Structures are given as structure tokens and as C-alpha cells.
Amino acid sequence: MQKKQGVILVNLGTPSAATPAAVRSFLRDFLSDRRVVDLPRILWLPLLYGVILPLRSRRVARNYQSIWQAGGSPLLTYSDALARDVEAGLLAQNIDCPVRLAMTYGEPSLEQAWQQLASAGVTEVLLLPLYPQYSSTTTAPVFDAWARLMSKQAVLPAMQLLADYHDAPEYIAALAGQVRRHWQQQGQSHLLLSFHGIPQRYARLGDPYPQQCARTAQLVAQALQLSSEQWSLSFQSRFGREPWLQPYTDELLTQLPARGVMDVDVVCPGFATDCLETLEEIAIGGKELFLHAGGRQFHYIPALNAGPEHGQMLIQFITQRFAY
Ligand SMILES: C=CC1=C(C)c2cc3[nH]c(cc4nc(cc5[nH]c(cc1n2)c(C)c5CCC(=O)O)C(CCC(=O)O)=C4C)c(C)c3C=C
Ligand SMILES: [Fe+2]
Ligand SMILES: [Fe+2]
């Protein structure tokens, strides 16, 4: 059989609408994954179904409404545009390599993406989770979903998983470029690099995520030639009561003005595309916290989204893996 290569870009997932029902369905799928919440099911499921889903879906739906775009959820629209750009960019280099988008939770599913690649005759797949830093809570579930899907297949395609790219020179250069462009237009401020958090316990169990975040932040600061006073690292989006990775972004934003940092630029390098956690939690909520604490100027620097540098970066990862 002739070999043919294809790529699946995988992102987390997002509600299909900014309504309590759609948010509930997304949260139910996501928060039922043992990789995400590892509590014994006998404790977790009554809490999830009895308290979290009924209360959180309504509140979080309102948050989604504040960032919803004409094309739907930002996470979906940017990821979709990115997948199209990468496929077109490969074709422009005479590389016929179909690229599809899939979500770990919800749609488009990994199954839908794979069906399309299989119909196009693909025999070798690169699974490319859009998570620059590996985490057992995000990257590993992509592999789990792939394994579940493949368990139903007689003939398996060859598969490579891009487990992380936290220190890839192309990624660091794309992030540094994004920050530099902002500074050329708006002037330079203290740079806060805010990553999604995970429970500290997961890191103690061996998740390399915090070390990879620290390395990314250090490499970006180095590429921008920043001294240690000119940047900080923090972790956002904590959930539940146990301690998560620290310092917490919301706490740090309220402390920075008292430490003399009156102007801040926040970039979220762990998010390939903008989403609820960047547009609502940081660009809206983070700004409010910082200004309320006495800060003067707050800017959110957008994620790489479907910008040309992002597409080019992914094309380089793909061509390196497939050795065209
Ligand atoms: C419950 C624990 C959670 C862990 C662990 C977690 C890790 C984690 N998440 C991302 C990326 C995203 N998370 C997003 C939303 C989101 N995350 C959690 C919880 C955990 N995340 C929840 C409950 C939600 C939904 C919103 C809410 O209820 O607050 C998103 C945004 C999705 C969107 O639709 O815009 C992303 C992206 C990473 C990278 C990560 C670990 C490294
Ligand atoms: Fe999350
Ligand atoms: Fe700025």
C-alpha cells in the first residue's frame, strides 16, 4: 500500500454554544476524565453531578457569552483557521498532507478527524496536541482518546505523537515575536507569562509540566533579553480546593503595583489559541484586578492563534517529523 501522511491538530474542546446546557455537556465530558480529576469516583461523581455541574454551568455560560464570537467559541474558530492555514501552507510547498482539527472533548472528535484522513488514504498520522508543555492532564488524554479509537480498528495507521514543544526554537521565536510586535506598537512593560495551572500533587506524582513552563518562560525572557526584574511567571485558572502551582496569576496581579510594577503586559504561552481562560479570565478579569489594585496600564498580548508565524511553526514541526 502506498504511504500517505496526515496530521491531526488536537485542542482541548469547548462548548458548542454559550448556554448552560452546552456548557454542562462540555464540563461533564471534560471533568469526568480521570486524568483531569483523579479523585475516587465515589467521592467525585456526586460532587460533579450534584454541585459543580448545576452551579458552574450557569455562571461559566455567562463568561462564555462575554467572549463569544460571530463564528462561535474563540478556541474553535482560531483552531479551525489554524488547521486550514497549515494544510494550505503545506500545499504551497507542494506537500499533499491533509490536516484536520480534533478536540479531546466534544466536536470535531478525533474519530471524525481520523475518518476524514482515512478516506483520503492516510496511512501515517502525526497527532499534534496544541499544548506546548506536556501535562498528564492535557497531552495524555489525547493519547488515551486515540488508543480508544484505535481499539475498534483492524488495521492501524502508523502514529507519532508530538508530546511537547516547550523549548522548540521555532516556538520560542514565535512567542518572542508576538511580544516584540506588541512592544513596537505600545511600548515595553513588565512581562507576565501566565500558564494554566495544575494541582501541585500532579507535579509531585511526576508531571513535568511546571519544569517545562519554567523553561519556556526563561527561554522567552532570554530571547527578549529581559533582566529578572522585567518579567514574572505565574499560574492561572485554578479549580477546587487543593493547592495548585504557584504563584497564582490573580494574586500576583494584585501584588505587582505594590512592588512598583505599574504597567504590565500579560502573555499566556501555554495557550495555542485564545479561549475563555485568556480572553475572559485574563484580558477582562485580570485587567480589572490589576487596575483595582492600583496598576496603571494592563495589556493582554494575544495567543499565536491563526497568525502566519504559528502556521509556519507547525509546518516546520510537521516537515521535521515526516522528513519530506
Ligand atoms: C479540573 C481541573 C483542570 C485541570 C487539571 C486543567 C488543566 C488544563 N487546562 C488547560 C487548558 C484549558 N482549560 C480550559 C478550560 C477549563 N479548564 C478547567 C479545569 C481544569 N483544567 C475547567 C473547569 C475549564 C472550563 C471553564 C471553567 O469551568 O472554568 C480551556 C478553555 C476552553 C474554552 O472553551 O475556551 C483551556 C484551553 C491546560 C493547558 C491545562 C493543563 C496544563
Ligand atoms: Fe483547564
Ligand atoms: Fe503593553
From TrEMBL:
Give one Pfam family, short name only: Ferrochelatase
* Record-linked CDD domains: Ferrochelatase_C, Ferrochelatase_N
The record's catalysed reaction(s) read: heme b + 2 H(+) = protoporphyrin IX + Fe(2+); Fe-coproporphyrin III + 2 H(+) = coproporphyrin III + Fe(2+)
Superkingdom assignment:
Bacteria
Q: Which UniProt keywords apply?
A: Cytoplasm, Heme biosynthesis, Iron, Lyase, Metal-binding, Porphyrin biosynthesis
Q: Where does this protein chiefly localize?
A: cytoplasm
Spell out the SUPFAM superfamilies in the cross-references: Chelatase
Q: Where in the cell is it found?
A: Cytoplasm
Look up keyword Iron and say if it applies.
yes
Its UniProt pathway annotation is: Porphyrin-containing compound metabolism; protoheme biosynthesis; protoheme from protoporphyrin-IX: step 1/1
Top-level EC class = lyase
Give the family this protein belongs to, as stated in its UniProt record.
Answer: Belongs to the ferrochelatase family.
Say what the protein does.
Catalyzes the ferrous insertion into protoporphyrin IX.
In Swiss-Prot or TrEMBL terms, this protein is called Ferrochelatase
Q: What organism is recorded for this protein? A: Pseudaeromonas sharmana
Q: Which gene encodes it?
A: hemH
